[in-house]
């Protein structure tokens, strides 16, 4: 591809692509890790209904997902400062180790409490890993190539997304749900052994880590991260127990929410909570997207199994639509990011996700065949592909090079917190109103409709993703002719 000729009539060749000789040694190990994470995520979502039933914890079903994400909150906060100060390799190594230990604990869990402990360890490792990968992408590739890198990363979800649900469903039905957790352990060890030396080489080739405010600032971020993770955990635990109507559950829920609100501003870009233009709004939009999508996705397999009589393999197959749609959305943004207003891509993505949620609610409430959910989830995945890839690219584009770790940490913090809140609120509502298998049709429909409104809000807030114009201190051609970051 050749860029259009400039005013002087010359054309500049496009930079080397993600799989070119210049970038291949970095790209391939990163993609391998993404494939592993993709399979684990999709496989666990498929097998969890069986695990929760076997361990007698269907009412607390959502905790298996939100506990993973709560621990990820702390991992993302720690990884941001750590990667900026020491490079991405140390947090990536620690994340891989914690992920492996957590998956092993889940595979052997004798009780649901033990499974939740394993999910906490794996989530902490996952938070460290994701931010480390973002820092690698931010340092190793030029701005023009990053949309294509995120496109390739999205492509890594296609094969696991197509084969993973059926394979995980077969494992859970024919062998045991424990195999779904355990099978990724040896693969994760092998991938980590390959990727860590390559990450060290990439960091050395593309610059040295920069400072992010010193050790004192890093410690304050860790304490705030602990507060957010603890508050989110308290909120989840209280929400799950609100069915009893006790004062303790109400206080736990309200107290957890208050702690999150108090600690969060210090971990996000200034102005995020008032939706300031540019990076602050990009970070907030990411959380709204994930709250809507993953809050819904968590309860799609359960609805299909309990209300439509699907097997685990069939329910997992429906999730394939989301994977294919996600890839299509990410591919579209890679081609359109520099030709269309970035805010428009977020508006379209949020609207598509909201429409999918509304359609899913209608299908559930009308008793339509569960296979129609595949089409709704294809649309939901497309909206997420647009939204997640666009926010990822804009975050690295708007952040200063020495602060990409902190910016990526803030983005992933919003990502995980959105997941936690979406799943926790949906899980609390489900726990409070759950009647029994075959009798929760109205409950599922209401959950999907409510989360569709969150997706619509994501699209609306996305219109503020434009970078703010620089202040003009004096009139004149030089001051008046400069704009930054407009679509």
Given as residue ranges, the uncertain stretches (5+ residues, pLDDT < 50) are: 1-12, 471-487
Which bin fits the share of residues in helices? over 70%
Report the CATH topology name of the largest domain. Growth Hormone, Chain: A
Radius of gyration: 22 Å
CATH level 1 class label of the largest domain: Mainly Alpha
Name the helix and strand elements from N-terminus to C-terminus, one letter apiece. HHHHHHHHHHHHHHHHHH
Question: So what's the overall shape?
Answer: globular
The assigned CATH architecture of the largest domain is Up-down Bundle
Number of separate helices: 18
CATH superfamily of the largest domain: MFS general substrate transporter like domains
Characterization of this structure:
This protein is an all-alpha fold and about 475 residues long. The protein folds into two domains: about 25-200 and about 270-465, MFS general substrate transporter like domains (Growth Hormone, Chain: A, Up-down Bundle), CATH 1.20.1250.20; about 225-265. Helices cover about 75% and strands about 0% of the residues. The chain contains 18 helices and no strands. The protein has helices spanning about 25-55, 65-85, 90-110, 110-140, 145-155, 160-175, 175-180, 185-205, 215-240, 245-265, 280-295, 300-310, 310-335, 340-365, 375-400, 405-435, 440-460, 475-480. Helix 4 (about 110-140) runs antiparallel to helix 16, helix 9 (about 215-240) runs antiparallel to helix 10 and helix 16 (about 405-435) runs antiparallel to helix 17 (about 440-460). The two termini are about 20 Å apart. The model is unreliable at about 1-10 and about 470-485 (pLDDT under 50).
